[in-house]
Write a structure and sequence with these properties.
The chain is α+β, with helices and mostly antiparallel strands and 641 residues long. The chain contains 21 helices and eleven strands. Strand 2 and strand 3 form a beta hairpin. The model has no long low-confidence stretch (mean pLDDT 82).
């Protein structure tokens, strides 16, 4: 192990960092101050999922790394077997090696977690929007981390011989010298790679709010397959084309660079593919959750009534519940205004909507106008005509879907009255959760229809009439934690089977903010683990070829290759190794962000640009650091040769 410390360094540090992040998440998960707060149970669920995803990834990463490290030491294993070591002794040695590295990673990771726990607790508390959590180490988090990673390293250590492959001496001794036949590319598969990537980019860029979810899975699959063939086939085809361009191929050091690239791409194509996919997941996860976190900025637009209560027809609890809400507001000395309106449900004979609702709630335009003005907003819509209706928006995030679908028509059972949608309300008068869900995920959901007052007054056949009551305060955070016994996490859904429905915007906002904050915190932690793992794979792959590169450049130097030319060739090859996978991942992520933008009603360009720019800057710094170390190692070897 000590003789191979350069190769094992990145693996050990990445494993230690993974243990540290896992331990920090476990500290959050079992922190008593967070456990005691029921409002933050969704955030705890997110953290639990983060811990699970991270553990699965760590298992795959360690499995891949151990297999790669074993293959890089095949010549050494051949020497040991030649000197008389048995297969059993070799297996035992590898088992002890991996367990020792694993134990060291667990110890270093936990120590690192303890040293940085307070910093992570402060940062996590800020993202969750809660008071800074005090430093506390739960015995459960410590035992979970030790037990989970001890099991992980134990299982992988038992599988080391299967990862080693053939133990024939001739195979072991020639593993670091024989590069195999010149790589050949398939024209058909190269064309398939280009078509898959172009098609996936087109589908992502042309996606709309109604199609983005449908296209997500096929576009993701096409991108993954296209990326794999990009590295295994299309890149080789491009290099073959470059070789046939004699003037370019024979210019200065291009001969050495391109010839080496052909073999490097053949040997490292799977590594490039793995790094690209991991980096894409990292960029998208952090970018998406950073963007979703902005939805909290638009929360007030979805809940103009800070507390909204709907009493279903026949409810005997309405008076008691409303009095309870008034009492809580008065006890907190929160000034408020009240407003109310009837939600009149009518039977629908037929409609042009795919969801075909059988009943639909109607409100008059005057009631809509009064509810919006009570929230301090301006009404810009004009009253609908006798047979016209406005779609009553349930949430601003549904606007894009509703705007894309065709305006619907309805035929009521009463006298065959026909209603035709003419537009969508600018504001949300009746928030989501307070009426039966109308529409679907493809057409968009809405709360009902706003109709002409005279039409509503003349309706005789009403299936039922519910009563909406809104409480309007100056600041929605003043309502946080109110009506806790009447709601679950700030709401009581209409479909819950209770005689009422209720939303408390202050509590809902706090739950949403903590959940989105936990998602962002999870994305930053797991994304960092993914990114460091991708960097360690690059580091290992680079240094596993160092011995071959030493012999090659020593021979080329004797043939007249200057130091400046060697540095140029090495820099070009390292730049491709470092920036091609990251560059492809950024292109993948860019089109993913374009598709996401079609689904959101707010711009995420700033968040997407900031995330991609930050990772690009980190990659440049990492490249310059590794390049300097790699050139120094090569120059030392050349002086020896």
């Amino acid at each position: 192990m000590l003789r191979n410390k350069r190769i094992y360094a990145a693996y050990f540090l990445s494993s230690s960092f993974s243990v540290m992040i896992f331990f920090v998440c476990a500290l959050f998960l079992f922190h008593p101050d967070l456990t005691k707060q029921p409002l933050y149970s969704p955030a705890k669920v997110v953290l639990a999922e983060a811990v699970s995803i991270m553990y699965v990834f760590c298992f795959l990463f360690v499995l891949y790394s151990v297999g790669s490290f074993l293959r890089s030491r095949r010549h050494q294993f051949g020497t040991l077997l030649l000197l008389g070591m048995t297969d059993k002794q070799l297996r035992k040695m590898l088992f002890y090696e991996n367990m020792l590295i694993g134990a060291g990673a667990i110890v270093v990771g936990i120590i690192g977690g303890l040293l940085t726990a307070k910093l992570f607790l402060m940062a996590g508390s800020n993202l969750l929007g809660i008071v800074s959590l005090p430093f506390y180490v739960s015995l459960y988090s410590l035992l979970l981390t030790i037990g989970a990673f001890a099991l992980l390293f134990l299982v992988i250590s038992l599988c080391t011989m299967m990862l080693l492959g053939s133990t024939r001496l001739i195979d072991l001794f020639q593993s670091d010298r024989h590069r195999g036949a010149p790589p050949q590319a398939s024209k058909l598969l190269s064309l398939l790679a280009a078509l898959l990537l172009v098609a996936s980019y087109y589908l992502a860029a042309s996606a709309t709010a109604s199609t983005v979810l449908i296209r997500m899975v096929p576009v993701t699959c096409m991108t993954i397959v296209g990326t794999y063939f990009l590295y295994t086939q299309l890149s080789l085809s491009l290099l073959e084309w470059a070789k046939r361009t004699i003037e370019f191929y024979w210019r200065k050091t291009n001969l050495v660079t391109i010839s080496n690239l052909s073999y490097r791409l053949k040997d490292n194509s799977r590594m490039f593919f793995l790094v690209t996919i991991i980096s894409t997941v990292t960029f998208c996860a952090i970018g998406v959750f950073a963007s979703i976190n902005r939805l909290s900025d638009e929360f007030e637009a979805d809940y103009p009534a800070d507390i909204a209560y709907v009493a279903k027809q026949g409810s005997r609890l309405a008076s008691k519940h409303l009095e309870q809400i008034r009492s809580e507001l008065q006890a907190r000395q929160v000034p408020y205004q009240m407003g109310g309106m009837d939600l009149i449900y009518v039977k629908v004979k037929e409609s042009t909507l795919d969801s075909e609702p059988r009943t639909i709630p109607l409100i008059g335009f005057t009631d809509y106008e009064a509810a919006i003005k009570a929230a301090g907003l301006m009404v810009s819509e004009h009253p609908p005509g006798a047979q016209e209706a406005l779609v009553l928006l349930s949430s601003q995030r549904e606007r894009l879907l509703l705007e894309e679908r065709k305006l619907a028509e309805y035929t009521l059972e009463e006298r065959g009255i026909r209603l035709r949608e003419t537009g969508i309300t600018e504001h949300v008068a009746v928030p989501e959760y307070l009426t039966p869900e109308l529409g679907n995920s493809r057409e968009g959901t809405f709360s009902g229809l706003v109709v002409n007052d005279s039409l509503l007054q003349n309706l005789k056949e009403r299936e039922r009439t519910d009563r909406f009551t809104g409480f309007y305060v100056d600041h929605q955070e003043q309502t946080m934690g109110m009506a806790m016994e009447l709601t679950k996490h700030g709401k009581m859904d209409f479909e819950a089977g209770k005689p009422y429905a209720l939303t408390v915007s202050g509590t809902l906002f706090e739950v949403q903010r903590s959940s989105y904050g936990a998602l962002l915190f999870f994305a930053l932690l797991v994304g960092t683990v993914f990114y460091i793992a991708a960097g360690s794979v690059l580091y290992f792959r680079l240094y596993s070829d160092l011995d071959y590169d030493r012999r090659q450049y020593a021979a080329l130097t004797k043939l007249g290759l200057t130091r400046q030319e060697m540095e140029k060739v090495v820099s070009q090859q390292l730049a491709l190794l470092f920036f091609v996978p990251i560059g492809v991942a950024m292109i993948h992520s860019l089109f993913a962000f374009i598709a996401l933008q079609s689904y959101l009603y707010m711009s995420i360009a700033w968040e997407a640009g900031l995330i991609l720019s930050s990772f690009c800057l980190v990659q440049v710094v990492y490249f310059l650091f590794i390049r300097a170390r790699y050139l120094r190692n090569l120059q030392k070897a050349i002086r020896i040769y």
